[in-house]
Amino acid sequence: MASISTLGVGSGLALGDILDSLTAAQKQQLTPISNQQSSYTAKLSAYGTLKSALETFQTANTALNKADLFTATSTTSSSTAFSATTSGNAITGKYTISISQLAQAQTLTTGTTQKDSKAAIATTDSKITIQQGGDKKPVTIDISAANSSLNGIRDAINKADAGVTASIINVGNGEYRLSITSKETGADNAMTISVSGDPALQSFMGYNGTSTDASNGMIESVTAQNAKLKVNNVDIENSSNTISDALENITLNLNDVTTGNQTLTITSDPSKAKKAITDWVDAYNSLQDTFSSLTKYVAVDAGADAQSSSNGALLGDTTLRTIQTQLKSILSNTASSSSIKTLAQVGITSDPSTGKLKVDDTKLTNGLKDSSAGIKELLVGDGKNTGMTTTIATDLTSWLSSTGIIQAAKDGVSKTLNNLTEQYNATSARIDSMVARYKEQFTQLDVMMNSLNSTSSYLTQQFENTSSKN
């Protein structure tokens, strides 16, 4: 079969050019389909951008949707011997703190040394039992004779999760001691160690709860003890240096003993709520920028055949418009049981031309200082059904869910794209079949015209010869 480039050679007709023109005309049917594919692909990507922007705003909204922000406090200690953290509704005020003793974890160390940390101590298999306090279950560790070196005992104890850690101390002159330390502080976590099986191992590391002769068993190198302190002159004893039950919603962290009485001051801290609010406003404004970008409209001259290619992919999109409208409605139609009814009352106003929010720093600071409870009621409400950020949180969860309006819109676009792909492939196949049929017909025409031309030339030549003879 002749190629397009050789069509018409036999007939002298421009069949190749005609076929090219016919092909180009048919291929134009693919252009609107291709344009739709590009448009819907851009829309699918735009939904991804919209979802990402909503998730960023959701993070800021979640951070603000906490009642504790509006009762937040800060702590100041007059001594480095202790610090404090607060949670919930810690009461502001001053507390007198005096620390006489820190809690300690008990450490036992072998009284005798070993010349080689890898040499076995026992000649028979043994069991080491570690008991901490009277209310904890004892832990028994199997020690084979071959694994009874300092290294072997240390590793076996550390693998047993016995509530203690074992280590080897190089005391110099090529001598080593085994040291065992409780993981928890306090007198109740003091330990006893018993060994059954090998007398040498029992003699080396047994401990019955009292310091023994340094040449027989382990000795207490660090005593297990509780923290002792006074808070407002009230005696407190605790097994830990982190004390969370002495003062309501206040955790004390003890670092050292004090010299005389020191002071812990708890004050209101509106800076946490203020930062959460300003971060929320910034995230909301960023979301508005995304809305504007996705719905951008560029005017074209009257009578133009198409819209500008610079238009946003979601221009006129109902999903985006629904989200935008509902957010605006929540911000402007709040229901609060406090005297603070609107964002404007605390210095947060909206620009009608852009939809963005603007914060009056001074007014917000004063509002948090004077009416933090009212602002909390406006923004957080009861945390379930009322409050601006609570309502927004519910809507965001719905919009972003696997069954929400964004996913539904994406599914719709994906389905349309699949249909367009099928339509494009079917149209392209039909065009290819039509072009092939034209090519076959043109080839036959070319062959036929070539044959007719040859016959015509032959007959003309014969007539000329006959005329010449006559």
From TrEMBL:
<keyword id="KW-0964">Secreted</keyword>
<dbReference type="Pfam" id="PF07195">
    <property type="entry name" value="FliD_C"/>
</dbReference>
<comment type="function">
    <text>Required for the morphogenesis and for the elongation of the flagellar filament by facilitating polymerization of the flagellin monomers at the tip of growing filament. Forms a capping structure, which prevents flagellin subunits (transported through the central channel of the flagellum) from leaking out without polymerization at the distal end.</text>
</comment>
<feature type="domain" description="Flagellar hook-associated protein 2 N-terminal">
    <location>
        <begin position="11"/>
        <end position="106"/>
    </location>
</feature>
<keyword id="KW-0969">Cilium</keyword>
<keyword id="KW-0175">Coiled coil</keyword>
<dbReference type="Pfam" id="PF02465">
    <property type="entry name" value="FliD_N"/>
</dbReference>
<comment type="function">
    <text>Required for morphogenesis and for the elongation of the flagellar filament by facilitating polymerization of the flagellin monomers at the tip of growing filament. Forms a capping structure, which prevents flagellin subunits (transported through the central channel of the flagellum) from leaking out without polymerization at the distal end.</text>
</comment>
<feature type="domain" description="Flagellar hook-associated protein 2 C-terminal">
    <location>
        <begin position="224"/>
        <end position="454"/>
    </location>
</feature>
<keyword id="KW-0966">Cell projection</keyword>
<protein>
    <recommendedName>
        <fullName>Flagellar hook-associated protein 2</fullName>
    </recommendedName>
</protein>
<dbReference type="InterPro" id="IPR010809">
    <property type="entry name" value="FliD_C"/>
</dbReference>
<dbReference type="GO" id="GO:0009424">
    <property type="term" value="C:bacterial-type flagellum hook"/>
</dbReference>
<keyword id="KW-0282">Flagellum</keyword>
<dbReference type="GO" id="GO:0071973">
    <property type="term" value="P:bacterial-type flagellum-dependent cell motility"/>
</dbReference>
<dbReference type="InterPro" id="IPR003481">
    <property type="entry name" value="FliD_N"/>
</dbReference>
<dbReference type="GO" id="GO:0009421">
    <property type="term" value="C:bacterial-type flagellum filament cap"/>
</dbReference>
<dbReference type="GO" id="GO:0005576">
    <property type="term" value="C:extracellular region"/>
</dbReference>
<comment type="similarity">
    <text>Belongs to the FliD family.</text>
</comment>
<keyword id="KW-0975">Bacterial flagellum</keyword>
<comment type="subunit">
    <text>Homopentamer.</text>
</comment>
<dbReference type="InterPro" id="IPR040026">
    <property type="entry name" value="FliD"/>
</dbReference>
<dbReference type="GO" id="GO:0007155">
    <property type="term" value="P:cell adhesion"/>
</dbReference>
